[in-house]
Amino acid sequence: MEKRSILFVHAHPDDEAIGTGATMARYAAEGAHVTLVTCTLGEEGEIHLPALAQLEAAQADQLGGYRLVELERACAALGVTDHRFLGGAGRYRDSGMMGTPANEHARAFWGADVDEAAAHLVAIMREVKPQVMVTYDANGFYGHPDHIQAHRVAMRAAELAGEDAPKKIYWGATPLSVLKAGIDALGESTDNPFAGITNADDFPFGTPDHEIAASIDGNDHHEAKVAALHAHASQIPTTSWLFSIAGNFGTEFMGVEFFTLAAGTRGPGTGLYGWEQDLFAGLD
Fold first, then answer.
1. Angle made by CA atoms 142, 247, 21, in degrees to the nearest 5
2. What is the largest CA-CA distance in the chain?
3. pLDDT band at 194, cuts 50/70/90?
4. Is 210 annotated as a binding residue?
5. Mean pLDDT value across residues 216-223
6. Of 156, 174, 218, 274, which shows the fewest CB atoms inside 10 Å?
7. Residue 5's beta-bridge partner residues?
8. Annotated binding residue at 144?
9. Share of the chain above pLDDT 90, in %
């Protein structure tokens, strides 16, 4: 049997830890070849460390270089040794939010030619030959331009890769049942991007439980995920809603990650909805 190989395609440094940190750590620990491709350096991120304020885009515009180091530390915490930037570090720039000047930057990832960007990812696919790829849904999970573009590029690369394309493609997701259970924890935290939302159906994301395909148990790697989040200190303050969830619910919320299946054949699963417990289910 060929060695398991799994490819994660994310938009900015810290996305890998927030959305898929436990899953990445689990597969790395199990000996799979885990490849992380990050599409930008995250130059437009909001800085939460006052000492680094001068690095922001409107001043020194050096945040991307700092976040590169944070990403290296996060990958070390997760046990991921194969990390690349799409087209090389700095090839594509953080596009900021829709309608901002950053969206119009000459190197903004949002404005990149999809086929050209996809070609960089195809080259990686042909090198590492992943059986599984993980990225975002068509709305980029919550609508960020770079997440949407990462989705477009990843899916286009899968079309162009031919026999080297992943056999299964997953999109990160959060079941509505998990959102409903976590609302109280979010309400107690600062730095909460969803302040004021008290109904799970009002979140800009959330997937009905029956549409979820896989539930990956990374409870044993909960601490690695939290350490990876802490590595992104410029972006994730210690009072973040993410750490509130970790503190209130521990591994139940931070150690289990969910996905929908976008391409490939669903493997055997368990429970009410037959959720897969392994992203390689049915491939071995």
1. 50
2. 53
3. low
4. no
5. 93
6. 274
7. 33
8. no
9. 77
Token pair recorded at residue 28: 């790395």
Sign, Cα dihedral of 44, 259, 23, 158: negative
The annotation status of 83 as a binding-site residue, yes or no, is no
What proportions of the chain, in percent to the nearest 5, are helix, strand and coil?
A: 45, 15, 40
Cβ atoms of 23 and 134 closer than 8 Å: yes
Contact 217, 157 (CB under 8 A): no
Domain architecture of the chain: domains with CATH: 5-263 (3.40.50.10320)
Residue among 173, 151, 135, 154 at smallest CA distance from 259: 173
Residue 82, classified by CB atoms within 10 Å of its CB into exposed (0-12), middle (13-18) or buried (19+), is middle
> What's the pLDDT tens digit per position in 46-97?
999 999 999 999 999 999 999 999 999 999 999 999 999 999 999 999 999 9
Query: What SS3 state is found at 218?
Result: coil
The distance of Cα 178 from the centroid of its chain, to the nearest Å, equals 18
Spatial neighbors of 219 by CB under 8 A, at least 6 apart, are 22, 251, 255, 256
Token code pair at residue 83: 């990390």
Least confident of 67-76, 214-223, 240-249: 240-249
